[in-house]
Amino acid sequence: MEASCPCSGFVTPRRKDLNNSSRKIKDSAADWHNSMLKWETFNDAGFSIANKIINIKISNRRESEVEAFEEEEASSNLEKTKLQYNKELEEACTELLNILDKMTKLVLKMEKLCANMKGILDLHTHQYGETGREMLLFHTWPTKYFYEASVQLTEMYKRELQLKRAIVQEIAHTSNNDLMKVELSAWLYQPYIEEKARLLIESMLLETGHRTL
Description:
By secondary structure, the chain is mostly helical. It has helices spanning 15-67, 74-128, 143-171, 177-189, 196-207, and strands at 3-4, 11-12. Strands 1-2 form a two-stranded antiparallel sheet. Mean pLDDT is 84; it is low at 1-15.
């Protein structure tokens, strides 16, 4: 049973609670790392599919232009080309939607990881006050640093997901080559995932012992 300190009004945690907190933070750091690796896998797959969609559209446009000059068979061939084009484009768009769905679920998991970190921080604030515990659970980071890092990462991936969703909605309907290239580049280079995302996760892994110096 938890004891209360009469002089401070704070709850004195049991050692088991501290062990649970450190384990949960360590597990969350590993989950963050795995989630980011999965995201990159989905991003690469999505880029390949988006690139295929663009190639299908460009190829269809060229075939249509060539057949327009062949008056005798133009009508029947053009109809067959359109049917094949629509089928290929629909299949590729479905694949890209599936990737987007996986990325959406991954961001939901990231939000849950962030909420878990907030729960641990709230518990420690209740136990020790705003200044936190004197003895850190890990090397140099207090609990609030893990939560703040989770917030930053979650916001990056949420914004990037919004961009991905916009690209998926537009790429099948875009006819301008330059705009298609911009959409493809935006998907690949992920402007909302800042360089410090890698630093944040590596710092978390170092702090929790998943990485060694």
